[in-house]
Amino acid sequence: MNLNDTDFQLFAVPATFAQEREVLDARWKELQREAHPDRFAAQGAAAQRVAMQWSVRINEAYQRLKDPIRRASYICELNGAPLDAENNTAMPPEFLMQQMEWRESLDEVADIASLEKLHAEVEAGRTKALSSLDWLIDEKGDYPAAAKQVRALMFIERFAQDVEAKFDQLGQ
């Protein structure tokens, strides 16, 4: 293992969007056992510091790989299509219209039933976006298109948080 290995190399999994969470979890536990600083206590402070660096690196990789949005973003970046989400917020017009409709619906929600309906629409949008990422990355290898889809999914995720906040506001 090398600190400069990709997350996929570190976890010994294919560099694909589709990942099995159980495999990632098991590999994370295995790597953490191997790199735990307590295992290096007899070797001195320097060995423990190196073990701590490994532990941090393993945790960062795990956090990226287990989260579909972060994993897709990472794959796009590795393949020369960084998201650049801070500077590139361009979205297709139909996606922007959907976002505006959802936002208006959220503003007009007055009861739990309406909010649950909107929540279901947002979840369906999230599922569709994740499915298209699987296709764009693993099947088609179209990383620039996948980067656009990840940016769209980030919008959906933020809106889903607003929907959850509305549930809280309505007392659910």
Which SSEs are present, and which pair or pack?
Layout: H1 7-11, H2 21-35, H3 45-66, H4 68-78, H5 93-108, H6 112-140, H7 143-169
Helix pairs in contact: 2-3, 3-4, 4-7, 5-7, 6-7
Kindly summarize this structure in a few lines.
The chain is an all-alpha fold and 172 residues long. The chain has helices at 7-11, 21-35, 45-66, 68-78, 93-108, 112-140, 143-169.
The backbone outline, from C-alpha atoms, is elongated
| Helix and strand element order | HHHHHHH
The share of residues in extended strands comes to under 5%
Main beta sheet: none
Low-confidence stretches: none
Q: Tell how many strands the DSSP assignment holds.
A: 0
Mean pLDDT: 92
Question: What descriptive keywords fit this protein?
Answer:
elongated, mainly alpha, 172 residues, 73% helix, single chain
Provide an overview of this structure.
This protein has 172 residues and is an all-alpha fold. It contains 7 helices and no strands.
